[in-house]
C-alpha cells in the first residue's frame, strides 16, 4: 500500500509539473521591462517570452507580436525553445507510461516485473523532462540578473525576472520530485507479483485451491472412557474436495475443523 501511495503521489506531481512547464512555455512573461533610472514611466510595460513579445499599456490595451523569423533569433532563445518543447514531449510520454505501469491500473496486469519497469521508465522520463526545462529557465535567469547589474547597459534595456521563470523553476523541480518518487516506488519493495490484484502470486481468491491442515484432535467422550489411543485421530481437511465413493471412513468418531462427525 505504501508503494501504491508513493506511485500516485509521484504521478500527480509529475502531471502538475508538466502543466506548469506548458504554462511557462506558452506565456510571454519571461522578461519584464525594469522601471528604474530614466525608465520610470510605468504607463507602458514590455514583456518578452519564447514565442512573442507583448506591450501592456495603462489604458488596458494589450498587444502581442510573434517573432517574424526563427533564424534571426539569438542562439540562446532558439535553444530555450527546443529544450522546453522536448521537455513537454517527454512529460507526455512519462504520463502515458506511468499510467500503464502503476499498481492502481489494470493495464499490463499479467506482465509481472515488466509492469514495474514501465512505471520506473515513466519516472525516468519525468526526471529528464524536469532537468531539460530547468536548463533554459536557469540560463535566462542568469542572463537577466547579469544584464541588470551591468553599469554600461542603459536602463531602458534592462529587464526583471518574469513570472514564467518562477513557474518554470517550480515546475521543473516538481517534475523531478515526482519522477524520483516513481523510480523509488518501482525499485523498492512492496510491489505485487503476477498473481493478480489484490491476491498474491499463486494464491488466488479465497477457497480457490485446496487447503489442508494436519492436526491431532482428541475426542472427549473417548478420553473419558480411557480410549486415549483411539481418541487421537489425525484428520486432513480439504476445502474444495469431497470424499470419494467407497472410501474408508475413520474407525472412531472424532472432531473435524467444520464440526463433530
Provide a quick synopsis of the model.
This protein has 261 residues and is of the alpha+beta class.
> How do the helices and strands follow one another from N- to C-terminus?
HEEEEHHEHEHHEEE
User: Hey, roughly how much beta strand do the residues contain?
Assistant: 5-15%
The helix/strand class is alpha+beta
Shape descriptor reads elongated
Helix content: 40-55%
> What multimeric state do the chains show?
single chain
Describe this structure in words.
- The chain contains six helices and nine strands, in the order H-E-E-E-E-H-H-E-H-E-H-H-E-E-E.
- The strands form three sheets. The chain has a five-stranded antiparallel β-sheet. The chain has a two-stranded antiparallel sheet with strand order 6-7. The chain has a two-stranded antiparallel ribbon with strand order 8-9.
- It has helices at 2-26, 75-101, 113-148, 163-187, 220-224, 228-231; strands spanning 31-33, 44-48, 52-57, 62-66, 159-161, 214-218, 232-236, 255-256, 259-260.
- The chain is elongated and about 70 Å long.
- It is 47% helix and 14% strand.
- The model is unreliable at 189-214 and 226-244 (pLDDT under 50).
- By secondary structure, the protein is an alpha+beta fold.
- The chain starts with a helix and ends with a strand.
Amino acid at each position: 500500500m505504501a508503494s501504491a501511495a508513493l506511485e500516485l503521489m509521484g504521478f500527480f506531481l509529475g502531471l502538475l509539473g508538466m502543466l506548469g512547464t506548458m504554462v511557462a512555455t506558452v506565456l510571454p512573461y519571461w522578461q519584464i521591462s525594469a522601471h528604474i533610472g530614466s525608465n520610470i514611466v510605468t504607463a507602458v510595460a514590455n514583456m518578452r517570452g519564447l514565442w512573442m513579445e507583448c506591450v501592456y499599456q495603462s489604458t488596458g490595451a494589450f498587444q502581442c507580436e510573434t517573432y517574424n523569423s526563427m533564424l534571426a533569433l539569438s542562439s540562446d532563445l532558439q535553444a530555450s525553445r527546443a529544450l522546453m518543447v522536448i521537455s513537454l514531449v517527454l512529460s507526455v510520454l512519462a504520463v502515458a507510461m506511468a499510467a500503464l505501469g502503476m499498481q492502481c491500473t489494470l493495464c499490463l496486469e499479467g506482465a509481472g516485473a515488466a509492469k514495474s519497469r514501465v512505471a520506473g521508465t515513466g519516472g525516468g522520463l519525468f526526471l529528464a523532462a524536469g532537468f531539460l526545462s530547468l536548463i533554459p529557465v536557469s540560463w535566462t535567469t542568469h542572463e537577466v540578473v547579469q544584464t541588470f547589474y551591468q553599469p554600461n547597459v542603459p536602463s531602458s534595456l534592462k529587464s526583471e525576472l518574469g513570472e514564467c521563470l518562477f513557474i518554470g523553476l517550480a515546475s521543473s523541480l516538481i517534475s523531478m520530485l515526482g519522477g524520483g518518487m516513481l523510480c523509488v516506488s518501482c525499485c523498492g519493495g512492496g510491489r505485487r507479483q503476477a498473481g493478480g490484484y489484490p491476491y498474491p502470486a499463486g494464491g488466488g481468491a479465497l477457497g480457490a485451491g485446496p487447503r489442508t491442515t494436519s492436526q491431532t484432535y482428541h475426542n472427549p467422550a473417548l478420553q473419558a472412557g480411557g480410549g486415549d489411543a483411539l481418541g487421537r485421530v489425525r484428520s486432513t481437511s480439504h476445502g474444495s474436495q469431497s470424499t470419494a465413493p467407497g472410501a474408508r471412513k475413520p474407525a472412531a468418531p472424532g472432531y473435524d475443523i467444520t464440526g463433530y462427525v
